[in-house]
Automatic annotation (TrEMBL):
Protein name: Nucleoside diphosphate kinase-like domain-containing protein
Covered residues, full protein: 446 to 591 of 700
Ranges where the Nucleoside diphosphate kinase-like domain occurs: 2-141
Active-site feature positions: H118 (pros-phosphohistidine intermediate)
Positions of ATP binding: K10, F57, R85, T91, R105, N115
Annotated source species: Synaphobranchus kaupii (Kaup's arrowtooth eel)
Sequence similarity: Belongs to the NDK family.
Residues spanning the membrane: none
Lineage: Eukaryota, Metazoa, Chordata, Craniata, Vertebrata
Length: 146
């Protein structure tokens, strides 16, 4: 079935590798249904990665993700969650280079922290993250004020 995943081009890769990564996404048959380029606040980065808050690298991760612009995307395709994870490759680029040399992390990641891209692990989390990043589509016309 067609499904959506939340994909992020992280701050280490956006400046240098934006075009190559977007090219991969298009050639991979994904539709970029929604897109937002922004600098995450620390609070947003903490919320985004709250599943990892007890990990020893959490502080570093939040610092890294909020240090410059990210591109956040809802990608649509058949099997999007799994396909995007395959395109990214393993978390650690050293491992990616061995097992998936054509993957984005093998080609563009700096290290296990600054690993160029993110993708949701399953459909349920993808839906939660897409809602967190893009909000409720029905409220988009609402005007804040008064
Ligand atoms: P991501 O797939 O976005 O999910 C969690 C992120 O934490 C991961 O990519 C890396 O950016 C980071 N990360 C995971 N493991 C480590 C680690 N051992 N040391 C530092 N950062 C890590």
């Amino acid at each position: 079935p067609r499904e959506q995943t939340l994909a992020v081009i992280k701050p280490d890769a956006l400046e240098e590798h934006r075009e190559e990564i977007l090219e991969h996404i298009r050639k991979g048959g994904f539709t970029i249904s929604r897109v937002k380029e922004t600098v995450l606040s620390k609070e947003m980065a903490e919320e985004f990665y709250k599943e990892h808050r007890d990990k020893p690298f959490f502080t570093q991760l939040v610092e890294f993700m909020s240090r410059g612009p990210c591109m956040l995307m809802a990608l649509t395709k058949e099997n999007a969650v799994e396909e995007w994870r395959a395109m990214m490759g393993p978390t650690d680029p050293a491992q990616a280079k061995e097992v998936a040399p054509d993957s984005l992390r093998a080609r563009f990641a700096t290290d296990i922290l600054q690993n160029c891209v993110h993708g949701s692990t399953d459909r349920e989390r993808a839906a939660i993250k897409i809602h967190f990043v893009f909000g409720d589509i029905r409220s988009e016309g609402d005007v804040a004020g008064d």
